[in-house]
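Re: [ENG-882] Designed sequences occasionally contain unexpected residues at chain ends

Forwarding the minimal case from QA. Structure tokens:
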């Protein structure tokens, strides 16, 4: 039996592929390389292509005897999703539905869906659990929630078993070669500013939080990958519930200023940040409650914020020839 990882040449996907292979699991990677890199998956079986190519997907499922799918392939930039919603509905919703259709027809038994804390929107709670009302404020978040609904409804009408994993703020790298190549999230944005000799920006310091800056739950990408392995094995065990939604986080919040302080400690570069206006739609606090994933999968995050920043900085400096 093989596991198909869609989007397996991307930042998170490549970590999942590496974790599965380290666990001795056979893996097939499907990626259109729009943001991924072929080199990231090493000598794993690789098929170039899109989940929207129905004939290709069905051939891969058949020829490789796929019985489990980890569906990570998606467009994920919040700003872009608002300016080009049709792209996001096509890639994230139509693509997921097509993949589910092919999976059911091929007799795939297990399905892990890559979801997001963006499904929650702006929750007004101390800790966000899986039963917190979902009210996404971005097109990206809405496409992920619709994807969850599609998975849930297909499970109810078939023999498929599935888990939707809602990632919180993913950071870090298991190795320099697998670092995040994008400059969209807070930690790489701070690195980019430091490398350019300009102060990093804080978007608003007047929130109702202890230091006035937004608080998020940061989770190491290696922990995210390990959670996927645990989810797949739970599904494959045959004892799993038909469908489950699980948060992937640490259950601990860190403010923007906390992150900047950790970056300074790790890099030895202390720069006074520039405070600018708030970004529309930024909730003051989004931190996961993680009891359910611990009880269901026996999974707990291992790495703290310092580990995340240090590994991300090692990858950043290696990838850009910068001395840390």
């Amino acid at each position: 039996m093989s596991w198909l990882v869609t989007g397996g040449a991307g930042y998170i996907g490549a970590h999942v592929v590496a974790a599965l292979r380290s666990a001795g699991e056979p893996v097939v990677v499907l990626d259109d390389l729009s943001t991924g890199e072929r080199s990231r998956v090493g000598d794993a079986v690789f098929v170039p292509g899109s989940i929207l190519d129905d004939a290709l997907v069905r051939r891969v499922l058949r020829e490789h005897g796929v019985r489990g799918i980890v569906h990570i392939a998606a467009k994920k930039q919040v700003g872009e999703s608002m300016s080009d919603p049709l792209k996001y509905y096509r890639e994230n919703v139509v693509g997921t539905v097509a993949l589910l259709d092919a999976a059911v027809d091929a007799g795939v038994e297990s399905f892990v869906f890559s979801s997001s804390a963006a499904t929650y929107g702006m929750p007004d709670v101390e800790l966000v659990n899986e039963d917190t009302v979902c009210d996404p404020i971005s097109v990206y978040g809405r496409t992920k929630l619709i994807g969850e609904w599609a998975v849930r409804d297909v499970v109810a009408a078939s023999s498929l078993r599935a888990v939707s994993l809602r990632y919180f703020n993913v950071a870090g790298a298991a190795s320099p070669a697998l670092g995040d190549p994008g400059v969209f999230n807070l930690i790489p944005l701070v690195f980019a500013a430091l490398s350019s000799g300009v102060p990093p920006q804080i978007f608003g310091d007047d929130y109702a939080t202890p230091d006035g800056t937004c608080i998020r739950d940061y989770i190491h990408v290696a922990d995210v990958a390990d959670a996927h392995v645990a989810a797949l094995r739970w599904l494959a065990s045959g004892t799993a519930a038909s469908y489950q939604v699980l948060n992937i986080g640490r259950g601990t919040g860190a403010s923007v200023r906390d992150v900047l302080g950790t970056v300074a400690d790790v890099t030895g570069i202390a720069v006074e940040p520039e405070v600018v206006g708030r970004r529309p739609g930024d909730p003051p606090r989004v931190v996961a409650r993680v009891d359910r994933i611990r009880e269901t999968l026996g999974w707990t995050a291992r790495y703290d914020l310092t580990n995340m920043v240090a590994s991300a900085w090692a990858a950043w400096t290696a990838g850009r020839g910068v001395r840390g």
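QA comment: On inspection the terminal residues look reasonable. The first helix runs from residue 11 to 22. Proposing we downgrade this to a documentation issue.
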